[in-house]
Design a protein that fits this description.
mainly alpha, 4 helices
Length: about 100
C-alpha cells in the first residue's frame, strides 16, 4: 500500500506584526464563531431533544441532549478524549472567556 502524499506547509512568515494584532485577530475569529453557534444552537437543541434516550432512567445523570452537544463540541474542537476536554474546559481562562461570551 502506498502512503498518501501530504501537502507541505507553505514557507511564509506570520502576517501579524505584534502580539496585540494577533490577539485582536484571534478575538475576531472567536466572536464570529460564537455568533454562528448562537444562531445554530437553538435549532440543534430542538432536533437533538427529539432523539429517544435508550439509557436506563434511574442511572441518568445528564440529559441526552447535553451529552450529545458535549460530544459534538469535543469533535469540533478536536479533543481526543473526555479527560482532555475536561482539563481544557476547567481552566480559569476558558471559564472566564466562556462566561463573558455567552452573557445575554
Amino acid at each position: 500500500m502506498v502512503a498518501p502524499k501530504r501537502q507541505s506547509v507553505p514557507n511564509r512568515l506570520s502576517p501579524y506584526q505584534s502580539v496585540a494584532e494577533e490577539q485582536a485577530a484571534r478575538e475576531d475569529a472567536v466572536a464570529a464563531q460564537i455568533s454562528v453557534y448562537r444562531h445554530l444552537l437553538p435549532g440543534l437543541l430542538k432536533k437533538l431533544a427529539k432523539i429517544p434516550d435508550p439509557r436506563q432512567p434511574k442511572k441518568i445523570k445528564h440529559q441526552l441532549t447535553v451529552v450529545l452537544v458535549y460530544g459534538l463540541l469535543m469533535c469540533v474542537f478536536q479533543m481526543a478524549s473526555r479527560r482532555e476536554a475536561n482539563a481544557e474546559m476547567s481552566q480559569p481562562v476558558f471559564l472566564s472567556t466562556c462566561s463573558s461570551c455567552f452573557r445575554n
